[in-house]
Every structure is written in structure tokens, then in C-alpha cells.
Amino acid sequence: MADFTEVAERVWVARYAQFDVNVAVVGGADGLVVVDTHGTAAAAREVVEDVRALAQALASPSVRAVVNTHVHFDHTFGNATFADAFGPNLPIHAHETLPEDLPDDILAPTHTFSSVRVLDLGDRQIELVHPGRGHSRGDIVISVPDANVLLAGDLVEESAHPSYGPDSYPLEWPATLDVLHQLIRPDTLIVPGHGAPVDRDFVEDQRHDLGVIAETIRDLASRGVPVDQALEAGAWPWPAETLGDAVVRGYEHLPRGTRQLPLI
């Protein structure tokens, strides 16, 4: 079990030890919106019970929608459990790429969008925004303007360096955070997908490191350093062993004209 902590007005976050993943709840007059559903059916059942306890304590209407911040299992594999708990017609919102990218045995989002969607909770609105590709191609963030909170998914991580996987976009990630930056004010609270809430300075520092990684990949490729030698050749801000997928994906995404013949 994890306690939901109110981090801003009617915005609660619970940090679950398994996968160190955050689940958020945003409350409104019409009910609750749950952001991310955890990584297994068993884990999601625990989240469901915690959300029910929160709703009961608030004397609030129950869950009216779910949002997936991106495709990865630790944020989506509980979708079916939430639909079982709160009704088969429960709306699940996500970027339009998720139905295609999710495994066939995972309940796919029912309501998708390409750029922006606004959810009306009765006495407040929340904004779902796809700022661009980075951690995955379908990353979205959730802005709660009246509470000055941004739920950032895995575009921002606090408990470890942001994770580059085989479906990441390392050359685009810095620009995506530039778009995200436009959604936050100096005192905005940012809730990452993993770890403790952070502030704008933290996001700016992380964006700087992501930018260094992207530019290092471009520089190495332009100088003809082969992809299998890039990790050793580069001066990286984070441990090189965490950047294997970043280098491979970065080289794949470079225009052919920027890649020189391998150094001899």
C-alpha cells in the first residue's frame, strides 16, 4: 500500500515501491482522474484500493477517467484492472500512438489525441499535452493550471537519470523538454514518473544533460566515430553504461548526410 499525498490543491501522488513509480490523482467536482495504472494487475489492484480509500475519505465521486502518460508497462499494464473496478466504459486517455504500440493483451486507451486534449472535471480543467517525442514517441504531460502542477511522466525522472530505451528519441528529447518548459512557471511543482516532485530548475538541469548527450552523439557521428565505439569515445554527463540505447537510437535517427565515413 502507498499513501496518496496531496502535493497541491486536489492533486495527490502515491509513490509505489515496485518500479518506484508514481500514480497521481486529480480531483474535481465531477470525480477523480487517475494518471497511470502501474505495471501489473496485482499492483493495479493495490492502486485501485488506495484510490477508493482516497475517494471515500473525500466523500468524492469515484474515478471518471484514466490517463496513460506513455506506453511503457509500468504505466499502462493496470488499465484492465481499472476498467474492471470502475466500469467497462471508463475512458482511458493517451496519445494516439499507444493503441498501436501496446501489446495485444493490454487494454488499450479508448480516447486518443495527437497534440492537446482538455478534460473538464466540473469546477476545473486539466490539459493533456503531447510536447514531442523523447522517452517514447507517445509521451504526454498533464497540466493542472489552477493548482500550478505538471505531471510529467517519464520525460522527467528524479530517482534516476531519465531512461533511454530502444523506443526512445534521444535527439528530439531536449526540444521536447523545451516545449514542456513553456507549460511551467518558476514555482510550478513538477511530478516525475519516478521519484520525488521537482522544480523548474531541476528540469532545466536535466534538459541541459539531455542536450549534451544529443550533441555528443551528433558530434561523434559527424567525425566518423563508429556507433560501436561511441560510448568509449564520448564525454558523457551520465554513466556511459546507461546510454547504450541513446547512442544506437541517436545514430539511427541522424540524417545520412551528417554521418561521415568511419575513422581508420
Produce the secondary structure layout:
Blueprint: E1 5-8, E2 11-16, E3 21-28, E4 31-35, H1 41-58, E5 63-67, H2 73-76, H3 79-86, E6 92-95, H4 98-101, E7 111-113, E8 116-120, E9 125-129, E10 141-144, E11 149-153, H5 173-181, E12 189-192, H6 200-222, H7 230-233, H8 244-253
Parallel strand pairs: 4-5, 5-6, 6-7, 11-12
Antiparallel strand pairs: 1-2, 2-3, 3-4, 8-9, 9-10, 10-11
Helix pairs in contact: 1-3, 5-6, 6-8
Low-pLDDT regions? none
- Separate helix tally: 8
Main sheet overview: 7 strands, mixed
Helix and strand composition category: alpha/beta
- Taken from the alpha-carbon principal axes, the silhouette is elongated
Radius of gyration computed on alpha carbons: 19 Å
Portion in helices: 25-40%
Average pLDDT rating:
96
- Strand order across the biggest sheet? 1-2-3-4-5-6-7
**Beta-strand proportion:** 15-25%
Q: Which H/E pattern describes the elements?
A: EEEEHEHHEHEEEEEHEHHH
Count of beta strands: 12
How far apart, in Å, are the first and last alpha carbons? 57 Å
